[in-house]
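Escalated from tier 1: pyridoxal-5'-phosphate holo job.
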Amino acid sequence: MSRPDLLARLAAAQADRAQAALLRRLRTVDAVDGTDIVVAGRRLTGFASNDYLGLAGHPELVEALATAARRWGVGAGAAHLLGGHREEHAALEEALARWTGRARALLFSTGYMANLGVLQAVLARGDLCVQDKLNHACLIDGAHLAGAVLRRYPHADVAAAQRQLDTAPAAPALVASDGVFSMDGDVAPLPALADLCRTHGASLMIDDAHGLGVLGPEGAGSLAEAGLDEAAAPILMATLGKALGVAGAFVAGPAALIEGLVQFARPHVYTTAMPPALAAATRVAVRLAREESWRRQHLAALIAQFRLGAAQRGLALAASRTPIQPVLVGASDAALAAAQALEAAGFFVPAIRPPTVPAGSGRLRVTLSAAHRQSDVERLLDALARVLR
Ligand SMILES: *Cc1c(COP(=O)(O)O)cnc(C)c1O
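Tier 2 regenerated the structure:
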């Protein structure tokens, strides 16, 4: 018997993807200038970034990063528990806890690792983990890593979530949902999920990667907007690489949660601490995100402008009030062709295809930023109307 070759199998899977217009392509960006990027020698207006507040290139962040690097060096050199945890990390954790109204916060190197860490630490083998079908991949992976029984419910369907909880009424249970859905832009039914958890003895975890900085008072996120405190939603996770324009993530909640994660979250324990200079830059980003509410106001105006203009041009939008404004196309090859036509017209808007989104729901994922001008949005709308006609 001959053993199948793993790399040959991988190549065959890739060929299948290409056949189905599902191949993903790595593009190298040669330069960045605000929301513009230069790709393959062409300048494109980007509508693809998660830099919703326009902070990623902010001079104050750059300065804070450089200053902290001169003081601390570049790498943390060790895991948090083994000497890598610096004053900059501690100060950022305090700032994030204060902002989100939680007792404590704990940094992770990426959002992906934060979600793996929380689920693996909180859930034991055989526990119940109930999740929205459109949750981010790392929440799904975290439930698998924990060995939990993963039960998914149709998008935003709280009655279905209840039925999933009722399948194992005595099992320890976690309900996990994106706060803002990454490919659809809609906000989870947070008060109803919190009620469900309260009445069914489950814990609620919200991944607010796309809500922090954008929603709620001072941009404190989707839970703050919904008025859900730490008692109602004890596990809040959010990333630092989206509206805050840096990289990394944190989990915020009661002290018992954070202490438990320090002990048991393997993606926190067994990994190098984020560079202290990134923590320093992020602290500046948190201050700007809280104080400069004009960024959220301008963003809201752009969102309204985009939705009105899209309706006037007969474009199919999702029910989203956030900077994530997908334009629904359907077939994967049509979504890809539309993205290519937009690129030819000077715009960078990625086509999102399965398995990132369900089959038949290919789309252009348009994201808006406070760094865009109204004229950018108007030009994009005209190009979309031409390309999708
Ligand atoms: C981006 C994202 C993550 C992962 O965060 P990274 O810091 O990029 O690893 C997790 N959850 C959601 C909902 C996201 O959109």
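Residues 19-53+293-388 form a domain with the Aspartate Aminotransferase, domain 1 fold (CATH 3.90.1150.10).
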